Each structure stands twice: as C-alpha cells, then as structure tokens.
Amino acid sequence: MTSLASKLLLIGGFAVAAAGAAVAAPDNDVYSVVIRFPTASLATESGVQSLYRRIEMAAEKVCVIEPAGSRLPSPAVIQCRKEAVAGAVEKIHNQRLAALHAASNKSG
User: Fold this and answer.
1) Per-residue pLDDT, 2
2) Residue 11: how many other CB atoms lie within 10 Å
3) How many domains does the chain divide into?
C-alpha cells in the first residue's frame, strides 16, 4: 500500500433461513470485496461520506440475500451487513469515518 491509496478488504459470511430452519454457510463460503480509495478522500466530509456509502454497498454484496428471489434481507443478513461495515470502519481507523458510522447507527 502506498501513502496515496489504500485498499480495504470487506469480508462477510452469511446465514440464511430456509423453511423455518437456520442454515449457516460453511467457513469457506465467505465473500469478499476490495475497496480502493485515495487516503486523501478521508480529509473531506464528502470523501468520507462517499467511502462510507461504498462500504455499505460492498456489505450488500458480501452479505447476500438468500434465497435469490427474496427481496427483504433476513435478520442474519442484516446483522452480517452491520458487522461487515463496522469491521471495515474499524480497519480504516479514521475519526471522521467512525463518527459518520456512529451517527448512521443512531439514526437507524
């Protein structure tokens, strides 16, 4: 990694409910997304907001809704997404990003 750009690996496992029974993904069924961003973007509010939205979109990719035809995420998928976003924010370790994440969690 250089000082001009950083990358973040966002990882999420998933658990799905099928016919009333919870089915957990095996350990090797973990999806990941790499997010590349210029570290300078963390110096501005708009840059932080843009990165946070990208993190949220990546969490939606790694924590998939099962079965594929369903439109609403299960509680397990919602939890997976929350943990993926929180983990990404923690890895970046930026005060502005952490504050945005905390504010987002308060508002819903």
Assistant:
1) 39
2) 16
3) 1
